[in-house]
Amino acid sequence: MSNKSVIQSILYTVGSEGVELSSIKKVLDLPINEIKTTLKEMAKQMSEDEHCGLCIKVFGDKYYLLTKEANHEYLAKLVDIKTKNPLTPALLETLAIIAYNQPCTRAKIEEIRNIDPTFAVDRLIELGLVENIGRAETPGNPFLYSVTQKFFELFGIKSLKELPPIEDVDFNVADDDLNFFDSSR
Known about the structure:
This protein is of the alpha+beta class. Helix content is 44%, strand content 14%. The protein is globular, with a radius of gyration of 19 Å.
């Protein structure tokens, strides 16, 4: 078996869970750099092959084997995909505050939003988009929150560096037009 074949099988098998490089390394016992290079080659081959309906994407620390975005409309005809966005504007705003300020306390969120963030933070934790990563070494030792791997998967980004710079956001537009995240991902 070739390394590409094994990696492709791993990606298929783990499905929506994705796989970290360290897990592939355990299976193939190859250097991480070699695995990364192989994954990049595979991703390039798949993206350039018009007869291939799959692609490899990286979100956070995990790699995924996904269907190409161009095939979405055809897949939607086959499978009745009904998606309801559980992220209200208040949840998105809270999520953005945490993402841009992490690690972030509830007090920081309240300072920015001028509203008690308890419900929003608790709901984001329920949705698996935010996690408690410990306590701040400040008076009261408040909890610190950061985004999770699921956040990266949901918004289709590898790192927080891919978020738009705050100075590029026009805060004078209507609330409906203000969106920190591309919800079509």
